[in-house]
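Help needed: design a sequence for this.
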């Protein structure tokens, strides 16, 4: 009897389970019926957003060291390979974009049960700095440029020679050279590679009479200065370790028509001068061994009335020149000979134009206009180099802008304002070229005259 009762108790629950299982496959149960749920086969995507990536740059992301994704614009991203339910993810940077450093936050997780959209990739540019000469204070100021906003932070001032009128950064980004018109010297500074501050190298170096402009060849071997009153171009060899200069044999070299502005071609074969007295722009051949300026092979083109400043686009295809009569003129550069052919002239607002500057992309060009207190912006025809005014140009710029510089990222412009003795930062729209204020201007030393910007290597 006891055994019978035991078997009855054991078999009854088993019968109930079998009965329930048989009901699961019956008709009428529209959603899958009862029984134990099958193992989950769901997968989920992993993604997030990218911010701060420079226009034209690309960052490569990895998920769990494998699934690779190249991202070339800011905004949302999603990896192509999904992750199984309950799995994990770990997003890292595989390849950094040029001159930027991207970091990942909210990049890892496990036991996931929904699509992941919370990964954040934030990119910041290599540190950028601006250097400004103060004509009346015999000094140079340094500023840090915020890589996200363009906002400026003062880093202090160093002494220079008398009336610093122009400056240039060495291609190594280690040195700055300043032409001082008041005492006809060059001041040399080393750039601190961590904080961007300047420290003078040696003593000021005597050069030609009243230099007005300065340039360096793309290899960083030679520095060129133009002195219009004595019609000379001085050439100095650069010590790559210290930045110190030594004048080469034969320097200064004769030049024509009062060279006021000077620029070296990106290919390093030619140097060009804007001749304020001769109303021409002249090409000179550079001796590739010694750096000497050769009279043979020099050619000139008409430059209008009072050519003052010159610059060359990054590709070396077009030279742009400004005149004291408010014109901006473009010249195509012959790839074989370096000779110039005029391709267009535009009349700007106001007068007393500064140096034309070409955007790193080559798509835009900008000219500071002192008297009108504006910056004229132009679109650059990518085939001919011809300029046409940008929509909305000229752009408001306070304080009599004497010069401007464009950041290596192409996102920002900084002006040196002679009138109200300030420096001001602006944002550049990477699609339209439009210029808008990036914040309040900072007070600067007396009579800011010239400005350059440099992006130091990432540490």
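Sure. Designed sequence:
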């Amino acid at each position: 009897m006891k055994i019978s009762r035991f078997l009855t108790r054991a078999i009854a629950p088993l019968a109930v389970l079998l009965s329930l299982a048989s009901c699961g496959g019956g008709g009428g149960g529209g959603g899958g019926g009862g029984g134990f749920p099958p193992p989950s086969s769901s997968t989920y995507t992993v993604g997030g957003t990218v911010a701060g990536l420079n226009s034209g740059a690309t960052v490569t992301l990895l998920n769990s060291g494998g699934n690779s994704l190249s991202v070339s614009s800011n905004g949302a991203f999603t990896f192509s390979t999904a992750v199984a339910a309950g799995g994990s993810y770990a997003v890292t940077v595989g390849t950094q974009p040029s001159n930027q450093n991207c970091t990942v936050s909210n990049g890892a997780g496990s036991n996931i049960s929904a699509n992941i959209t919370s990964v954040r990739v934030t990119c910041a540019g290599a540190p950028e700095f601006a250097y400004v000469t103060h004509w009346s204070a015999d000094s140079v100021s340094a500023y840090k440029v915020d890589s996200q906003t363009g906002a400026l932070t003062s880093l202090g001032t160093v002494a220079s020679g008398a009336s610093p009128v122009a400056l240039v950064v060495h291609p190594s980004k280690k040195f700055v050279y300043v032409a001082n018109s008041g005492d006809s010297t060059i001041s040399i500074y080393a750039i601190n590679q961590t904080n961007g501050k300047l420290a003078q190298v040696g003593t000021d170096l005597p050069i030609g009479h009243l230099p007005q402009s300065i340039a360096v060849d793309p290899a960083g071997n030679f520095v060129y200065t133009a002195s219009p009153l004595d019609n000379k171009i001085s050439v100095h060899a650069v010590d790559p370790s210290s930045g110190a200069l030594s004048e080469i044999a034969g320097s200064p070299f004769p030049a024509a028509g009062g060279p006021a502005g000077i620029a070296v071609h990106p290919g390093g074969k030619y140097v060009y001068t804007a001749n304020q007295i001769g109303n021409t722009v002249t090409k000179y051949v550079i001796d590739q061994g010694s750096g000497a300026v050769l009279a043979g092979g020099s050619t000139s083109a008409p430059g209008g009335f009072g050519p003052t400043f010159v610059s060359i686009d990054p590709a070396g295809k077009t030279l742009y020149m400004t005149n004291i009569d408010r014109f901006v003129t473009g010249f195509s550069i012959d790839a074989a000979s370096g000779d110039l052919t005029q391709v267009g002239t535009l009349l700007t607002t106001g007068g007393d134009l500064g140096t034309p500057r070409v955007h790193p992309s080559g798509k835009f060009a900008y000219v500071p206009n002192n008297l009108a207190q504006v910056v004229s912006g132009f679109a650059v025809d990518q085939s001919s180099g011809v300029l046409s005014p940008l929509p909305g140009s000229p752009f408001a710029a306070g304080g009599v802008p004497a010069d401007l510089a464009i950041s290596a990222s192409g996102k920002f412009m900084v002006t040196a304002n002679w009138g109200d003795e300030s420096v001001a930062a602006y944002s550049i729209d990477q699609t339209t070229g439009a210029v808008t204020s990036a914040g309040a201007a900072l007070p600067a030393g007396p009579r800011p005259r010239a400005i350059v910007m440099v992006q130091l290597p990432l540490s």
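The mean pLDDT is 90.
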